[in-house]
Amino acid sequence: MRRMEWVIAGAMLIVLVGLSVWRVLAWYEGPYESHLSRLELEDAVPKKQSEGDYVSSRDCRSCHPQPYRAWHDSYHRKMTQLATPSAMVGGFDDVELSWLAPPRKPGGERRLERYRLSERDNEYWVTVLNPVTGAPGGEARVVMTTGSHNHQILWIQNGDQGELVNLPFTYLVDQQRWVPRTDSFLSPPEDPFGLVYWNEVCIECHSTAGRPRVGQEAGEASDTKVTEFGIACEACHGPAGPHVEANQSPLRRRLQRDEADPNIVNPARLTANRSVDVCGRCHSILSYAGTDSWDGHWNDFLPGDKLESDGRLVLRPESRDPSMRRVVAGHVKAEGPRFLRDRFWKDGGVRVAGRELNDVKASPCFQGGEFSCLSCHSMHGYEDTEDQLAPQMDGDAACVQCHPKFEGDASSHTNHAVDSVGSRCQNCHMPYTTYGLLKAIRSHRVSSPNALAERATGRPNACNACHLDKTLAWTQAHLVKDYGMKPILLGKERRLVAAGPRWIATGDAGVRALAAWYMGWAPAQKAAGSDWMAPYLAELLGDRYSAVRAVAGESLNNLPGFGDLEFDYVASAGEAGVESRLRVQAEWANQLSDKGMSLPGPLKLDASELDRGAWEELMKGRNMLPLALTE
Hints:
The chain is α+β, with helices and mostly antiparallel strands. Helices cover 34% and strands 11% of the residues.
């Protein structure tokens, strides 16, 4: 009997030891790695240190296990992570990468840079190679990551000054490939997005309570600190120290369960104005020009504050409010003449991803006083989507909760079949007119389609985003007939040329990218047919903007008969792009020459080819202003 007691005690001891080991591993939230290796990582990145009333998400977990678990699985938490095996998504098995870096001086030549990526005992290293011989030069350890589900950027130390600089390559998760960082954004080839310092730029939104404290003098080290990497609990709820202290007693927690705790902010209990500001702290267009951004105080905004109180929120004016015009004029003077063009449509609509607040605040729904981000999104109980939409909010239910008269009778309002994508509220009132991450994203300015907005701004309208084979005049005729809109005068191209080809021929780089994305979008292919799209997408394979080439190539792969098309958008500028265009157009002609196809508008087929003369004449109207969409 005594022997059995010893056996039981031994088994219990083994279980306790196992649980202890499991807890230690769980603390690191990833595969096991040497303690020394992790300490070296933590020493190389900004220090995690709570200041003031901040604590950390660990202090929230015990009392709020379900919200903590949902947040822990979210993309917000993974926005910035230590470079551990659980965080890395890109291949690192002796991968060699190269790119033509921009010249160091204006007018200089681009230079070839080569790198090798390798993994050693769960550590990730970058070796600089000689451009000619391939011999190894210096090397650096990857210490941190940004992003996890679309793109991932890697960070290495910049010397011994405590700043982190990005590896000049981005990993595209869907394509499972590395590309030069300059080819993952929409920017002019002569003015690409260059190197970025995490401590100075990304810390603003990709950490919780970040304090940059960047060294301003030569040789002066940075003293950057964060409460947590990624977007954690206190980014949305504010400093939780007083809340944690006040709720130490289980009895108090039980008695106060259904009451608002004044020691913490719950965005769901705020007014719509203050609730959207919590999200808008990161999801908005702000200007920091003329402010001292590096003294550690630019992050003074706390949940519950009024975001625009410091004048940094840029709401491009649509009204005649002279005070607002003066504010915007001040931003433009401080930031430069392209500041607005690289972020907004001409009427103030946002055209870059991740900056939804500026559109939300301009929406009629928001003017009603109750509409906020939480009307559709949830941080703790969301569908398994990258948008973190609340349950059932990915369809018409998101809209009919405020507009119940359209529930069950959408077709009488939309003039489309009830099961058609044309009867989905979001496709008409939140069309895909925002760009980011090499794709189109829904606008968050809730509005109705009209021809005047496109004529005035160049922004594609919702109707022709599906009906790519129809003209803007066709759209206007339906809007006048079905909704009583006042007709406007339209020029020859908008009357005669189908919207899809016209956007590709005449639009700026952002419009061309959107038009290319529409042609790969299943609802547009169904509404407009897809047999005619290939020659137009082929015209973009040699576009001077690599992002436009990327979207066009992806959409071509979505067309019947082109799924096996091999096209490397990074290497396809210039002559290579022309060769790709000719190859695609020849293949298209071979597939469809016996079907009597004709292209939309006046650009008819001649011997199964695009009418080059008509096309080149249309191309003379292209918007050639340089554009860098700052996502």
